[in-house]
């Protein structure tokens, strides 16, 4: 795969996705909402999912995002929606930061945290969906949710002076 680096940092795909993001917006009455952020860099992502059943499996029928952040944050938010739209919840949860980075043709290492935030937003939206619907939360999903919350708590504690 040939990487075409633009503007010194980003691939052409990252810049195209930033300029023309897919699935941008908010879903009214979303089945699940994931909100994540990083107080250090200032990125905040909201991911909204609508779930339907197909052949007895739960499918992410629609997915949208709203992101306040840098080029990489907006691009990773957009690309994760492309990666999981139409997939089962089970398959969507297999999406990794590496899938996001690869789909964008690469990211500068200093921006890898944006791909992590995008995946975390998806995890949180799916966790919210299970929680709101009184569904049994799979053990792996519960563990991931706890890790995301723990990291958030640590960062907020460390930077609480800034958070006020």
SSE blueprint:
Elements: E1 5-6, E2 10-11, H1 12-19, E3 32-37, E4 44-54, E5 57-68, H2 71-84, H3 89-92, H4 97-103, H5 112-132, H6 139-158, H7 160-163
Antiparallel strand pairs: 1-2, 3-4, 4-5
Helix pairs in contact: 1-2, 2-4, 2-5, 4-5, 5-6
CATH topology: Sufe protein. Chain: A
Q: How are strands sequenced across the largest beta sheet?
A: 3-4-5
* Total beta-strand segments: 5
How far is the first residue's CA from the last residue's CA?
45 Å
Main sheet record: 3 strands, antiparallel
What is the alpha-carbon Rg in Å? Answer: 16 Å
Q: Which CATH architecture would you pick? A: Alpha-Beta Complex
SS class: alpha+beta
Give the SSE string. EEHEEEHHHHHH
The proportion of strand residues reads: 15-25%
Unreliable stretches: none
What does this structure look like?
The chain has 164 residues and is of the alpha+beta class. It has a single domain, classed as Sufe protein. Chain: A, CATH 3.90.1010. Helix content is 48%, strand content 20%. The protein is built from seven helices and five strands, in the order E-E-H-E-E-E-H-H-H-H-H-H. It has helices at 12-19, 71-84, 89-92, 97-103, 112-132, 139-158, 160-163, and strands spanning 5-6, 10-11, 32-37, 44-54, 57-68. A three-stranded antiparallel β-sheet has the order 3-4-5. Strand 3 (32-37) and strand 4 form a beta hairpin. The radius of gyration is 16 Å and the shape is globular. The mean pLDDT is 91.
